[in-house]
Amino acid sequence: MDEKKRTWQGSVIRWVVLLGIIMSLTFVQTPYFFTVPGDAKVLSEVIEVEDGYDYEGSFMLTTIRMGRANPVNYVWSLFSDRRELLHVDQVRPEGESDEDYQHRQMMLMSGSQETAVIVAFEAAEESADFEYHGVIVTQIIEGMDAEGKLEPGDRIIGVDETEVYEVNEMLDILSAFTIGDEVSVTFEREDETLSETITIQEFPEELGAEPGSGGLGVSNPVTDRTLSTSKQVDIDAAQIGGPSAGLMFTLEIYNQLTEYDITSGLNIAGTGSMSDDGSVGRIGGAGQKVHAAHESGVDVFFAPYEHGREDSNYEQALLAAEASGTEMDIVPVDTFEDALDYLYERRETS
């Protein structure tokens, strides 16, 4: 074989090896997801309250984008303050399908919207009430006794021969049982009413539960309820999932219900889940949502303060604000009332 042919063959081999390396770096998945800043959506474009008032500023929903990390994305995320790595177990439990994950996220978003309506209507002195129907199973913990007995989508209507209408009722009943006890669970699946005996078992250590705590093996249950209001509220949040828009939904609905515009003409974003009592809860990706808000020209960003706990969403938001060089006001809140108080005070002093 002449020298020219050997050189050509060696070049081909090197390119094949290089191509193989590139493909492996691109298509091989690590056990991590990476998240990056998404965008900010103006909520008046997706929420409409019947006979609602117009206003000058805007409330915005901030998002993050998520994908499975290959080796390139993994290394990149280690050196970027705009990216975050999450182990797959932090996102969804082993065995949960993409379809189940999306269903769970949409259920959480639906619950978040209903809670926002209740809190906003109460604050605006409008009528809003729930009719409760039971507890929807959104996720089964692998290896626990509910596996194979309950399924995502089942509606639990009874525990230990006691009717159940919402999540807290179910948890109160279960709190009387200990590890190893058997519990009768009545539920609806499609058009059938069924019953299963389920053993209370200790939660897996990787879930982060306190040692010795246990349950049926149902994670993230959601109360099934029907909302009736004095005014119609239409929300079109497309395919955005999860509960993290609760605070901003509440502010948007409240501002449409009241003649007094609390935005002062500002662009206002933020994050945080919303509870029926108006409490604002911790969410994921707070720092990345600050980057998204900054790039969308936001003036004020609300972040869960978590009563001053270390590494709160508020602290994460401050770090991201410093890294982005934004001039946004980062405002800590523990409740919906905290956000309202800030906005009313700001309007009165502007």
Can you tag this structure with a few keywords?
350 residues; alpha+beta; Ribosomal Protein S5, domain 2; Pdz3 Domain; 2 domains; six-stranded antiparallel β-sheet; globular; hydrolase
What does this protein look like?
It is a single chain. The chain is an alpha+beta fold and 350 residues long. It has two domains: 37-95 and 230-349, Ribosomal Protein S5, domain 2, CATH 3.30.230; 130-224, PDZ domain (Pdz3 Domain, Roll). The protein is built from nine helices and 20 strands. It has helices at residues 3-27, 71-78, 88-91, 98-123, 167-174, 246-257, 286-295, 313-324, 336-349, and strands at residues 32-42, 47-49, 58-68, 84-87, 128-136, 139-140, 155-159, 162-163, 182-189, 192-199, 201-202, 214-215, 218-219, 222-229, 233-235, 267-270, 273-274, 280-281, 300-304, 329-333. The strands form six sheets. Strands 4-1-3-16-19-20 form a six-stranded mixed beta sheet, sandwiched between helices. Strands 5, 7, 8, 9, 10 and 14 form a six-stranded antiparallel beta sheet that branches. The chain has a two-stranded antiparallel ribbon with strand order 2-15. The longest helix has 26 residues, at 98-123. The chain is globular. The protein starts with a helix and ends with a helix. Residues 236-346 form the Lon proteolytic domain.
Q: How many domain regions? A: 2
H/E series: HEEEHEHHEEEEHEEEEEEEHEEEHEHEH
CA-based gyration radius: 24 Å
* pLDDT averaged over residues: 85
Would you identify the regions where 5 or more consecutive residues have pLDDT less than 50? none
Tell me the CATH topology of the largest domain. Answer: Ribosomal Protein S5, domain 2
Portion of residues within helices: 25-40%
CATH class (first level) name of the largest domain: Alpha Beta
Number of helices: 9
CATH architecture of the largest domain: 2-Layer Sandwich
Q: How would you characterize the largest beta sheet? A: 6 strands, mixed
Strand order across the largest sheet:
4-1-3-16-19-20
Question: How many β-strand stretches?
Answer: 20
End-to-end separation: 85 Å
Shape: globular
* Approximate strand percentage: 25-35%
Structural class: alpha+beta
